């Protein structure tokens, strides 16, 4: 949201249990916008903002700075041996990129994934506000094994890169390592589109949920406002 002078007004959440590290409180500063240019969001990414729905948020947790933005320079990326094995395991899966819209099959997949991965009983309204509303140029990446939808991702298309918003897969395909597979395929997609970076969201070093992100090399992490090579 903005005031009459078009200045951004940040609101602060009261705090809730951290989704990444137990025993910690998660707080964010956020603003909402119905429309935002992609190049402006790229600047915000460099200030540790991320997006969900029409809200742009920045983590401001007291005494903690473990959430670090991570991006992959797509031209330099080469999959590791284990990542190549994941690609071979999923060679029967096709990827298509489509406009963001509400689809019942995608919503049902998201709801099943939320229970499986996060032990949360979400609903259609949450899905719509989180993933069907976007102030940016956003696409869905749909993964099919034959005629079966097995996973879906949401990608913000920016002037310099693709930014991953969210990814969900069918629980019965959990052994396929579809999260790793999707990152590889979406890095390839960014390269095909002539973009420089694939933004993978936050990385938290001590969170088991985030371990897989460290394996994508080379990578850059946002440290004290600067993108540094790792």
Radius of gyration from the CA trace?
17 Å
- Quickly give the structural class: alpha+beta
CATH topology of the largest domain: Aminopeptidase
Number of helices: 5
Beta-strand fraction estimate: 25-35%
Number of domains: 2
Largest sheet strand order: 8-9-10-11-12-7-13-14
* Overall CATH architecture of the largest domain: 3-Layer(aba) Sandwich
Main pleated sheet? 8 strands, mixed
The count of β-strands is 14
Mean pLDDT over all positions: 94
Task: Write a structural description.
The chain has helices at residues 38-45, 81-89, 104-118, 124-131, 178-192; strands spanning 11-12, 16-17, 25-26, 28-32, 49-52, 55-59, 68-73, 93-99, 138-145, 148-157, 161-169, 197-203, 220-223, 226-229. Residues 1-5 have low confidence and may be disordered. The chain has 2 domains: 11-69, no CATH class; 70-229, 3-Layer(aba) Sandwich (Aminopeptidase), CATH 3.40.630.30. A hairpin with a 2-residue loop joins strand 5 and strand 6. An 8-stranded mixed β-sheet has the order 8-9-10-11-12-7-13-14. Strands 1-4-6-5 form a 4-stranded antiparallel β-sheet. Strands 2-3 form a two-stranded antiparallel sheet. It starts with 10 loop residues before the first strand and ends with a strand. The protein contains 5 helices and 14 strands. With 230 residues, it is α+β, with helices and mostly antiparallel strands. It is globular and about 45 Å long.
């Amino acid at each position: 949201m903005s005031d009459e002078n078009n200045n951004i007004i940040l609101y602060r959440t009261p705090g809730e249990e951290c989704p990444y590290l137990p025993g910690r409180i998660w707080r964010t500063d956020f603003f909402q916008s119905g429309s935002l240019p992609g190049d402006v969001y790229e600047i915000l990414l460099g200030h540790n903002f991320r997006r969900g729905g029409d809200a742009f948020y920045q983590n401001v947790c007291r005494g903690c700075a473990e959430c670090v933005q991570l991006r992959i320079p797509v031209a330099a990326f080469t999959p590791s041996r284990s990542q190549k094995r994941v690609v071979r395991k999923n060679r029967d899966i096709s990827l298509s990129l489509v406009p963001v819209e509400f689809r019942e099959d995608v919503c049902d997949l998201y709801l099943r994934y939320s229970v499986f991965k996060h032990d949360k009983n979400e609903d259609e309204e949450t899905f719509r506000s989180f993933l069907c509303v976007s102030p940016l140029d956003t696409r869905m990446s749909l993964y099919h094994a034959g005629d079966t939808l097995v996973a879906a991702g949401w990608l913000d298309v920016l002037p310099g890169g693709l930014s991953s918003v969210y990814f969900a897969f069918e629980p019965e395909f959990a052994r396929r390592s579809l999260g790793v597979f999707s990152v590889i395929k979406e890095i390839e997609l960014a390269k095909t589109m002539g973009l420089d970076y694939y933004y993978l969201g936050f990385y938290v070093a001590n969170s088991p949920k985030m371990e897989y992100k460290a394996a994508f090399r080379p990578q850059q992490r946002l440290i004290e406002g600067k993108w540094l090579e790792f």
